[in-house]
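Work Package 3 (structural annotation) set out to generate three-dimensional models for the target panel prioritized at the project kickoff. During this period the team completed the workflow that converts sequence records into discrete structure tokens, so that structures can be stored uniformly alongside our sequence database. As a representative example, we reproduce one entry of 123 residues exactly as it appears in the project archive.
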Amino acid sequence: MQNIPVDVRRLGTLMCVVPPEPRVNQETGEIRKDRDGNSIYVVGVSVRQQGNRRADVIEVAVPGEPMGIAEGIRVTVADLVAVAWEIDGRKGTSFRASAVVPNGGSAPASAPAGRTKAAGGEA
């Protein structure tokens, strides 16, 4: 799978519409971990491009629990990447980032985002 960097500056307004929740393995009920052993959390982020009335919601997977994020808060997403995937005939795009922080908050220094499955069904 190829990681495709996303230029978040071109996405316009980013707002949390689903507060952070842990990514849970459907079979075992355990919280999923990244390669470094960090718990993976998912944040639903509404994306509205400038000059466009339509908004989309993407699920962004991040390592560790994002702090200070609640529904309706504008957010900043650090190091966003898109990953196209295909499993058992199903296809989708997952999104992951190194951090989701409240707008005006400070994101950690750039770091490679862990491999996670963020959207489009379960593996």
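The first strand starts at residue 3 and ends at 5.
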